[in-house]
Design goal:
This protein is an all-beta fold. The strands form nine sheets. Strands 2, 3, 4, 5, 6 and 35 form a six-stranded antiparallel sheet that branches. Strand 25 (304-307) and strand 26 form a beta hairpin.
Length: 496
């Protein structure tokens, strides 16, 4: 089975194969990451703070926002943060996270089974970004990010295989520049785009944002820094890079002087336009139409402001269900996934349609942008080194993930017609059509005498046939997660 199983809530009949839902849900957690799959499902990561220590949970969520399973880690360390991850075509999740000098790396499949769970040896690096590649993934790391300007830094790029083994490590430096930091990486065609900032020698501190382009083996190609010529900025940096249209690369930058903005580059990494968003810029997301969406601290009610390819505001979307600035916006299916933090534990997960409309939509914040004139690109030499090549090894973490029970609140849910591609066409057998769940002896399925197929979590068929009085004795099944397919409808159930 090549795609991960779609676990859906559906109020529509199976003939509506392109149905989708806008929704707002709260699982009483503190969401720190959302990682989409290729078939409309997704993972989320939340932390559980208390007394200065944290554990974290991974939730696997269906296309319509309902929980499939939740697993809580047995890792208790101080101040977990910086969760980043990706999924492959089988919806295997690879997740990195950090806590001070602690760096974790976890890989689990769509059933919640751990493939490996490790942490990096005590190195001075904090793993801060991850992006997939064929047969593995890339990681970037930062050394001494929060140290003083006199402390040198060595940024690293690691390539690892899917078993968590390091293939190679490369570090980078700029001649005569003491501090060079990586913040985000994205594969762009046959290249890697790495963004960050460097600090000039001297005092007071002066930093410049830069973008480093390498091949897929980490060999440097072009490297450039960008300067806002008409504004006196003492320190600013690129923190995020995102692109949907290959010809439009968007970068988020911020500065200690409060100048937060979005810079658009073309494929040649030349500046196209740069806009300053009023307030602290929250998150950016390159849109399906080639423009970019963003949130800022000036907006409320979940406002997401949309810019076209020319950098002009063309709309804003908001919800009346909660007053909050989105912390995460991601492309997903024919819409977007949004995280809306409020007070712990009370973050919302939202799915909005491709036209960027929430369920329960209200008039959005109109937005406020200031054009930033004359952003110039300057080449800069970045050298590849081997200073970090012997500092990385992985240690097996003991302690399994345990099942986690969550409380769900549904703020709103609305159907809409999806014109974009969906991973699977099956609709969900709702809870009134398949019950009880979990089950021990018998499940009841409303099938209209249609044949059913039951598969286990690995995709193997464990039952195929019809039912007697819409019931099936499941005592022959081992405890675990199973999936029912019937008349183009699908649902999972748990055998206890």
């Amino acid at each position: 089975m090549k795609t991960c199983l779609t676990i859906l809530l559906s109020l529509l009949f199976c003939s509506m194969a392109q149905s989708q839902y806008k929704y707002l849900r709260n699982y009483d957690d503190d969401v720190h990451a959302i990682i989409p799959c290729q078939d409309s499902t997704y993972y989320t990561v939340s932390i559980h703070p208390g007394c200065g220590i944290n554990s974290f949970s991974v939730h696997y969520i269906g296309r319509h926002g309902q929980l499939i399973w939740s697993k809580e880690s047995q890792i208790w360390v101080s101040h977990l943060n910086n969760f980043k991850g990706f999924t492959d075509e089988n919806n295997v999740l690879t997740l990195i996270y950090s806590s001070l000098d602690y760096n974790g790396l976890t890989r689990m499949d769509r059933t919640g089974t751990i493939i490996f769970n490790r942490y990096f040896n005590s190195s001075p690096y904090r793993m801060n970004s991850i992006t997939p590649t064929t047969g593995g993934f890339y990681l970037t790391g930062i050394q001494n990010e929060y140290s003083s300007i006199s402390s040198p830094s060595v940024p690293v790029l690691l390539k690892m295989d899917n078993s968590g083994q390091v293939i190679w490590v490369k570090s980078y430096s700029i001649p005569t520049i003491p501090r060079l930091l990586f913040h985000d990486v994205q594969q762009h065609g046959d290249s890697l785009l790495i963004v960050g900032n460097y600090t000039q020698a001297g005092f007071p501190e002066v930093t410049f944002p830069y973008i480093l382009k390498t091949d897929l083996n980490g060999n440097t190609g072009s490297s450039n820094y960008y300067r806002i010529e008409t504004i006196d900025v003492d320190r600013y940096k690129f923190t995020d890079v995102d692109s949907y249209d290959p010809a439009s690369i968007y970068l988020k930058f911020n500065a200690s002087t409060g100048i937060d903005g979005i810079l658009k580059l073309n494929e040649q990494l030349q500046p196209v336009w740069c806009k300053n968003a009023v307030g602290v810029l929250g998150t950016i997301c390159a849109s399906y139409e080639g423009g970019v969406m963003f949130s800022s601290s000036m907006s409320s009610d979940g406002d997401i402001i949309n810019l076209n390819t020319q950098g002009t505001i063309i709309g804003s979307t908001a919800t009346g269900a909660i007053s909050s600035t989105p912390s995460i916006i991601l492309r997903h299916d024919c819409g977007y996934l949004v995280a809306l933090p409020s007070s712990w534990p009370g973050d919302r997960y939202a799915h909005i349609s491709q036209d960027q409309v929430y369920c329960g939509a209200i008039t959005g914040f109109p937005g406020d942008l200031t054009p930033i004139n004359t952003v110039t690109k300057h080449p800069i030499t970045v050298n590849t080194q081997t200073l970090a090549s012997s500092t990385f090894s992985l240690i097996v973490l003991t302690g399994a993930f345990t099942d986690n029970m969550l409380t769900e609140t549904v703020d709103c849910i609305e159907p809409y017609s999806c014109s974009g591609p969906l991973g699977l066409s099956e609709q969900e057998l709702t809870s009134d059509l398949l019950y009880p769940n979990p089950a021990t002896d018998v499940i009841h399925i409303e099938t209209s005498d249609s044949p059913i197929v039951i598969t286990d979590a690995a995709g193997a068929v464990v039952y195929s046939g019809t039912l007697t009085n819409n019931e099936l004795n499941i005592r022959f099944l081992a405890p675990g997660l199973y999936h029912v397919n019937c008349n183009q409808q699908r649902r999972h159930f748990i055998k206890q």
